[in-house]
């Protein structure tokens, strides 16, 4: 796992077509903007974990 620090307005690129940008950061809260092709499925972590539990 890669862990990096980013400030609001900064971003990281995944390959050439997925951007994850910090749009707001307050103590204990973080808002991200994700720009990706429509065919890329994006799922919140708690929903992903619930799906994994249901698949067992």
TrEMBL record:
What is the protein name given in its UniProt record? Translational regulator CsrA
The UniProt GO MF terms for this protein read:
mRNA 5'-UTR binding
Name the InterPro entries on file: CsrA, CsrA_sf
Cite the SUPFAM superfamilies for this sequence.
CsrA-like
Family classification? Belongs to the CsrA/RsmA family.
Q: Which organism is it from?
A: Halobacillus locisalis
The primary site where this protein sits is cytoplasm
Alphabetical UniProt keywords: Bacterial flagellum biogenesis, Cytoplasm, Repressor, RNA-binding, Translation regulation
GO biological process entries: bacterial-type flagellum organization; mRNA catabolic process; negative regulation of translational initiation; regulation of bacterial-type flagellum assembly; regulation of carbohydrate metabolic process
The cross-references to PANTHER family, in alphabetical order and at most eight, read:
CARBON STORAGE REGULATOR
Q: Tell me where in or outside the cell this protein is found.
A: Cytoplasm
Name of one Pfam family that matches: CsrA
Question: Subunit info?
Answer: Homodimer; the beta-strands of each monomer intercalate to form a hydrophobic core, while the alpha-helices form wings that extend away from the core.
Q: What does this protein do?
A: A translational regulator that binds mRNA to regulate translation initiation and/or mRNA stability. Usually binds in the 5'-UTR at or near the Shine-Dalgarno sequence preventing ribosome-binding, thus repressing translation. Its main target seems to be the major flagellin gene, while its function is anatagonized by FliW.
Q: Which GO terms describe its cellular component?
A: cytosol
The encoding gene is csrA
